[in-house]
Amino acid sequence: MKSVEKTQKNLTIKQVALSARKEIKRRRRESEKIHIPNDIVEEIMVKLPVKSLMRFQTVSKHWRTLIRSRDFEERHMALEKSKGCKLLFVCDDDFKERMKDTLFLKTVTLEKTSASVGDEEALEFEGFQNFFEISESCDGLVCFYDIQKAVEVINPATTMFIELPLSRIQQLCIYNPNREVELELEPVQDPNPVPEPIRSFSQFGFGKDSVYGRYKLVWLYNTSPTTTPTCEVLDLEVKKWRFVNTTTLDHHKILFNERPVFANGSLYWLTGDEEGHPTTQTKLIVFDMHTEMFQVIPTPPFITREPSGGKISICNLDGRLCISELKGDCKQEFWWRVEDNTWERIFSVDLHSTSTWFGGITSQPLTPLTISRVTNKVILSLRYQDNLVALDLDPNSSVFHLYFSGYYGLVCPYFPSFALSH
């Protein structure tokens, strides 16, 4: 009996010793682990590309919550902006052979010597067999749109997208009474009824309320030669089109061949004549994305007195409103808007020097897309032409070279972000 008790006691001692050794080993392993504070992890992750962060959301619930937080999104966006702009192309290596209803998006980075193709995504969207437009990019989002097709808001970096309801002008153009299609529209208070929708000219804008950070889409369109243009606005968080007051436009019409520009919290359009054609009385229509109020202002004083609207061009160049005028000697001057009434001359271009790459065209203004901070070159485009040209901004240089060739004709400045990921 004593021997049994002694055996059991020895077993108990061995078990306690074994358990103690296991605990020592466990504590040793724990002590050998590297514990990285959460703030250090966040500092590392915020510098990673969007594609990597999309995968890392599956690692843990904590990482997913961190990556999807608005603060992280804003910090990541600010860092991407600081790296310099990329270019987003809608194209294919052989556009004629592309898959039906498929959009091919290519991202091109600005490097020292040439254009470098980065990521390529094939995004499929129904109904884009015919011609369509691409909006400016706002926080890494772009809109594909057509007057007879629902707008798609797309994040190329995450491949997420939203299809929006048809605006009033789109519904009218799709179900034109001349096509013998009955139209049943929701009753709305249309301030300027469209008599002939298929002849009404519209321009689509996309931007952001700088106060509340809400993305908004804007359709501004000429209704008739005798009435004020009509404006519809959609807040991306509400996803419903509504009319806004345009009485301050005082019968000013938008120019038909110049799309609006978003900069510094406002959308800008150039005015045209009663039919939307270029005029010698060109002004700027300004729409505040926060207050949703319009105003009409004169073009800057450096623009030639009573110039033709067809020779004036506006764009967003690295976050600021840029306006230019094509002079009679085929020289185009570009200016930045520094403050409300303050402008800074950036550079000028002799279109005789660039016409070689643009089919000999010297009668249409060029559009600057972005400036490379590394090479100090500005990338110039001509709408619906296949080439991009780089100009050295060194004051002592007038060197141009072919920067990129052979795309479909739709391109915009862009940087990847997490917008729409929530």
Automatic annotation (TrEMBL):
<dbReference type="Pfam" id="PF00646">
    <property type="entry name" value="F-box"/>
</dbReference>
<dbReference type="InterPro" id="IPR013187">
    <property type="entry name" value="F-box-assoc_dom_typ3"/>
</dbReference>
<protein>
    <submittedName>
        <fullName>F-box protein</fullName>
    </submittedName>
</protein>
<dbReference type="InterPro" id="IPR050796">
    <property type="entry name" value="SCF_F-box_component"/>
</dbReference>
<dbReference type="Pfam" id="PF08268">
    <property type="entry name" value="FBA_3"/>
</dbReference>
<dbReference type="InterPro" id="IPR036047">
    <property type="entry name" value="F-box-like_dom_sf"/>
</dbReference>
<dbReference type="InterPro" id="IPR001810">
    <property type="entry name" value="F-box_dom"/>
</dbReference>
<dbReference type="InterPro" id="IPR011043">
    <property type="entry name" value="Gal_Oxase/kelch_b-propeller"/>
</dbReference>
<feature type="domain" description="F-box">
    <location>
        <begin position="30"/>
        <end position="77"/>
    </location>
</feature>
<dbReference type="InterPro" id="IPR017451">
    <property type="entry name" value="F-box-assoc_interact_dom"/>
</dbReference>
